[in-house]
Amino acid sequence: MKRDKDGRPKPSLSRDAAYENSFKSFYAAADATGLRPQGMRYRAQSHFHDPSVAENFLVNSRIRRFDREFAISLQSFYFGAAALMASLVGHEFIDPSLVVSLPPPIKLGMELGEAIRKRRSRREYSGEPMGLDDLSTVVWSAAGVTARASVSHPKGGQTWIHFRTTPSGGALYPVELYAASISVTELSRGLYRYEPIKHCLVGVGDGQSVDRLLDGFCVYEDQITLSRAGVILLMVARPWRAIRKYGPRGLRHVFMEAGSMSQNVHLSCVALGLGSVDCSSVYDDEVHEVLRADGVYETVIHSVVIGDPTS
Fold first, then answer.
1. Which residues pair with 130 in a beta bridge?
2. Residue 194 pLDDT > 80, yes or no?
3. Domain 100-145+167-307 belongs to what architecture?
4. 246, 255, 235, 250: which is closest to 298 by C-alpha?
5. If both were cysteines, with which of 184, 238, 269, 297 could 276 make a disulfide (CB 3.0 to 4.6 Å apart)?
6. What is the domain partition of the chain in residue ranges?
7. Nearest in space to 186 (alpha carbons), one of 144, 127, 136
8. pLDDT digits over 231-280, tens only?
């Protein structure tokens, strides 16, 4: 064994490796451990009996060459009946007694480049009420209708396809927008669903629903001052609108659509002088219970908190 000038053994890489492995924890049975921090989960994931959900999603949602079943399924959506189906997206029965009219969106005057440069996540709010016209502008920016095109009905006649502010794979629009009003002028504290075609809100819950929703967020007030925000926007997906056309790949489209909606929200908030921040820290089951959603065919995939910023 080689030694240094003092007679001590010189460090050896192989010896250090053997020593390190002798005392490191072994994670093969990590799934039987009571407390499993994320670092431990990551290091032990190759030993888990259940495969990684995230990795499986990436693999199973790939497009592969010569997938004939996928190609045939996709082609069926380009015939007249499919166009008619797309024209029906967003047309649902609305109880007139639950409708809240929205003022026209404010015309945003800030140049896009300036809005992009100024965009920052704002987590602290003053508690000042948010204007209903501001809310109207934000929800329209996220999911509002900007144009429409006529489509010939297979059996004669015309119908309309509506185009929105954010792109959607196949114009299927699987992501719907909900607004939890915490402090908005001329709008009662409650839970609402945004109807893009009519540009209105539809009441789906009262003030108690908002309280339960706030309890479903797993963030503290020193992280995001939820109680002093003006509104929380919830992006609620119906994934099968996209999956039935694009297969598992459609779920990627759902997430991309929510991302586009979120960015439009942030940029419009900058132009309006509002603060906003993305937040995915929710107890899903509790939030789904408030929304009466099953969490699979209808599920919350994102939320944005908006309010008057403190600085």
1. 184
2. yes
3. 3-Layer(aba) Sandwich (3.40)
4. 235
5. 269
6. 13-50, 100-145+167-307
7. 136
8. 999 999 999 989 988 889 999 999 999 999 999 999 999 999 999 999 99
